[in-house]
Amino acid sequence: MSTHSIPGFRIAAASGLALLLAGCGLLGNAGPQERGAIYSPDIRVQADPAWPAVDWQLSIAGATATRMVDSPRISVRPTPSELQVYAGASWAQTSTDLLETTVLRAFEDSGRIGAVARSEVGIRPDYKLVMDVRRFESDYAGQAIPSATIEVAAKLLYNRDQRVVAARTFLEAVPATGTGVPEVVAAFEQALGALTVDIVGWTLTAGQADAQQREAPL
After folding, report:
1. Is residue 111 classed exposed, middle or buried when 0-12, 13-18 and 19+ CB atoms within 10 A define those classes?
2. How do residues 107-154 score in pLDDT, each as one tens digit?
3. pTM score > 0.85 for this model?
4. Which residue(s) pair with 41 in the sheet?
5. Are strands 73-77 and 84-91 parallel, antiparallel or unpaired?
6. C-alpha angle 164/63/135, rounded to 5°?
7. Collapsed DSSP state (helix, strand, coil) of residue 131
């Protein structure tokens, strides 16, 4: 097995990711020569005045992602065919946990919904939000400066019969102000904040439209 490195990155060719992860752990913890930096975004978003106030309850299912995406390592894509990670830097949580935590907090802080919780918490939800993280990476996309790119496929289900009320894919790409990890992390914070606003607003609007339709007299 062979690897190569450039300053600031630890390389893993996309075709060899599974071998690297299962084999010699090159994507593991920072070595003795790396000073590990752990980033823990604390993102709070403002409620949009246009969001409806609802009286139904919502559960947030555990977000899913592929093995490489659902990682505390900070991924970077220098070319379309390569996926790498920043050496000596990581998130405090996996990408799915970061998304769940940020979205849950936004619902709670919005004042627009009476009860919202993760699925494992014992509420009796009317609706369930399901999210799949497709991308959570710093993407150069042919540019000199990368963009923090987050893509999430979301479904809103009516919990009683698991009917799909609405489905949508959300994508945010925020250019960093530089190539350094702190600049990239700041771009991720902006992207995750904007994505959260979109997801929360869409969920409240789609759920309320469905609730009103169900309650309308025949």
Report:
1. exposed
2. 999 999 989 999 877 789 999 999 999 999 999 999 999 999 999 999
3. no
4. none
5. antiparallel
6. 100
7. strand
